[in-house]
Amino acid sequence: MLTTFALTLWASCGLPADSVFDIATLTSTPLDAEVLKSAEKDGIVTEEVRYHAEMDGTNRVDIFAFFSYPKGATKLPAFIWNQGGLGQASTPMTEFGAKRGYAAMCIDFPMPGYRSTGGYPITSGVDLGDDPKKAPIYHGAVALLKAVSFLESRKEVDKERIGMCGSSWGGFYTTLMGGVDPRLRACSAMFGTGSLHLGNSWWDGGGRSAQRDAAFRERWRTTLDPAFRLPHSKTSIAWFTGSNDFAYWMPAIVATHGKARASKHLTILPNWDHGLTPIIDEQVFAWLDVHLKGAQPFNEVKPLLVFKRGDNLIASWEFSGPRKVKSADAMLSPGDDGNWTSRYWLVLEAKIEKQRCEVALPPSSLPYYLGGAIVDETGFRYSTSLLRIDPKVFGASASKAVPDYDGCSEWGGFEPEQVTYLKLLAFMDPAVSNDAKEGKQACVLKGTTTARNIYFTAGVPHRFSCFLKSEKETDIRVALAGEFDGKAQVEEKTIRVGTDWTNATIDYTPPKCVAGGLRAVFIVPEGSSALLDCASFRPLK
């Protein structure tokens, strides 16, 4: 059942009765918790547990979970970890939490083939039938409500210091529960967000879905969308994401962050997809440390301001907080709305004077999206929200459509840090050679090799360039393969390559799109190998 603290908090929110989640009723059902198995290793106890979530008609839904804590602990802060892809519960993250001084829990969602019962196909899509309570997503939320109840029932847990975190689908649920369950003190979401009516890969990955019309999107927004309840929530909440996340797009995460009224935080990594650097992974849990363990508070950034000074546009933003700041930058992406998964973000170093950051913006005749950030001595990143800027509104003129950039800059030289980037995002695991055109390394090509992702400004002509080399003369097919709103578009050339580095170029104009993607494909004849270096994709002047 809801604690007196939680009931008081819920009432103080002034939130009308929830038409989907009847919190008091859902949490008052018997918990029937039991420990199935217990083991201890290196001072950490890990239990396999089961508890009752709900009766869905005649279908009894019971949840399996792992629960870890330091041996002999009482009244610890606690968190629930929601797995990426809602994978089956496992112990690495619960043991990680216990070693960090938490009681930590990870559940099997009530999905087909899992140790929990229910059998709801939660990850099959983001859809909504006539009754939101029949949607698979609803039953996953109920399972998490009762997971909080389980933590409240344990002597190892301080019931007033319970949080939640998760990745991808787990981040979606973390955001949702941050608005649904008033017992949660802090939530930390990797990638997942709400405001999905603004666009997401499930509905709009092949172009704006006509099946999800305005009426459908509004009904989704006001029932199951994770952002809907955040304006009334007192749960501290943070989001950590890449600017080009394939599933959860920038308009959705920016709007969701904007709706939260409690203490909040946003980290955006420019030109990153569905992955984070190790230091930002750590920042995800540092947010919980702040709000559940009383650790040093995060810094805060104020909204961006843009103004004209002489012939230049200037962006500025201020910050405050106890953590020492070592750098600041602005991220700028040319082009208007759309193409969120593949647009390029220029990173512009900003000057810091006292607690104010400032940077001159490059000329562009196209509108662009702009965000600011500071980075502290630990490497933690604090991002502002994004603004759409139309230079013409400010009276700024430009002789070219967009600033110069390289849409392959994150990986095109195959240097060690670039290979790490490719591996962390699961884009590519290239074999490398120290025989390089530039730098330390080049990519070894055998058979068919796909290099991704290439980022771009939709509708603007670009030139792809790379250098190739082979131990003997051979023909290599080089293709740019794209898919834009579900339609394929390919340009390719055959390049004669020998023992000297040979430049290959392809001119390519990615079309305007809601969702697009572009990659380079290299096909080397069987029995041959080649080297690739200095790949770039730049707007044509």
Q: Summary?
A:
The protein is α+β, with helices and mostly antiparallel strands and 541 residues long. Helices cover 18% and strands 36% of the residues.
Explain how this protein is built.
The chain has 541 residues and is α+β, with helices and mostly antiparallel strands. The protein folds into three domains: 4-298, Alpha/Beta hydrolase fold, catalytic domain (Rossmann fold, 3-Layer(aba) Sandwich), CATH 3.40.50; 301-394, Immunoglobulins (Immunoglobulin-like, Sandwich); 416-539, Jelly Rolls. Helix content is 18%, strand content 36%. It has ten helices and 28 strands. The protein has helices spanning 4-12, 23-26, 92-99, 136-152, 169-180, 201-204, 214-221, 250-259, 278-293, 416-424, and strands at 34-41, 44-56, 59-70, 76-82, 103-107, 157-167, 184-190, 236-242, 264-269, 300-301, 305-309, 312-320, 325-334, 346-349, 351-353, 356-361, 368-376, 381-383, 387-389, 432-433, 442-445, 448-451, 462-470, 474-484, 487-497, 502-508, 516-523, 530-539. It has a nine-stranded mixed beta sheet with strand order 1-2-3-5-4-6-7-8-9, sandwiched between helices. Strands 10, 11, 12, 15 and 16 form a five-stranded antiparallel beta sheet that branches. Strand 6 (157-167), helix 5 and strand 7 (184-190) form a beta-alpha-beta unit. The N and C termini lie far apart (65 Å). 48% of the residues are buried. The model is unreliable at 1-13 (pLDDT under 50).
